[in-house]
Amino acid sequence: MKERLDKYLSSQTALSRKEAQKAIKEKRVFLNGTVIRAADTKVDTESDTVSLDGQPLTYQQYVYYMMDKPEGVVSATKDRAERTVLDLLPPDLRRDGLFPAGRLDKDTTGLLLITDDGDYAHRMLSPKKHVKKRYIATLDREPEDSIVSAFASGIILGDGTVCKSGHAEPLGGSRVALEISEGKYHQVKRMFAALGYHVEALRRVQIGGLTLDKGLNPGEVRVLTAEEAKKVFC
Ligand code: URA
User: Fold this and answer.
1) How many CB atoms lie within 10 A of CB 155?
2) Which atom of ligand 1 lies nearest, measured to the CA of 104?
3) Fewest CB within a 10 Å sphere: which of 12, 47, 121, 202?
4) Closest to 31 measured CA to CA, from 49, 57, 11
5) 39 in helix, strand or coil?
6) How far, in Å, CA of 111 to CA of 205, rounded?
7) How many A from CA of 185 to the centre of ligand 1?
8) Does the Cβ of 188 fall within 6 Å of ligand 1?
């Protein structure tokens, strides 16, 4: 694939398009060992070597990151008032086009995927793919055993929306693990509300076959290999 040099740089590094153009003007960018002055120079992403400040870049068409989303940040690319999950990315993982694949509420924590691969996110979120998500909910009180069959037969939300069947597993005390394959707005909280419970804390721990890395601290991110990223469809 051929791409303009400034676009290539902003997609592969933390530089914005403008910063990339400035770096090119400042002679900090080399293409196959030769300094390049024109931002519109075409780069062959497969065969050319681009270096910035003496460091060769390894081209990656798409990246996939796993974050342990902390409380208090929004799952958006930009927000006028709030800190977003993208604001938490360390500089070396930033690049153009990243977005959270699916949303968690501001007060929900846990597994969030961040990518620049729109097709991947689309497939993951498509209702047709039935990708399961596992949450740990802490309720306002110990749940009745009857929630298990209520989730299995499909909860009807307060506004009449019918949810697909889910798998609830009481974990003792007020904690419940819940697996669902839909992603309606505030779905977990609304499902428990329909049964008369308030969700006091919610954490996502798994998407498809991909589990949250327990080694991550809240707000930390790590790169997923392509193999790991595919596990969401397993
Ligand atoms: N369901 C919710 O209610 N909130 C989330 O953040 C995710 C699922």
Assistant:
1) 23
2) 6
3) 47
4) 49
5) coil
6) 6
7) 7
8) yes
Q: What distance in angstroms lies between residue 17's CA and the mean position of ligand 1's atoms?
A: 34
Give the tokens for residue 40: 């519109």
Domains in the chain (CATH in brackets) are: 2-56 (3.10.290.10), 64-126+210-233 (3.30.70.580), 132-207 (3.30.70.1560)
Among protein residues, the one with the nearest Cα to ligand 1's atom 7 is: 104
Helix, strand, or coil (residue 202): strand
Helices (H), the chain: 5-12, 17-25, 118-125, 146-153, 187-194, 226-230
| 233 residue type, one letter | F
10 Å CB burial of residue 64 (0-12, 13-18, 19+) is: buried
- Exposed / middle / buried, residue 29 (Cβ in 10 Å: 0-12, 13-18, 19+): buried
Quick check: CB of 41 below 6 Å from ligand 1? Answer: no
**108: Cβ below 6 Å to ligand 1?**
yes
Q: From the CB of 75, is ligand 1 less than 6 Å away? A: no
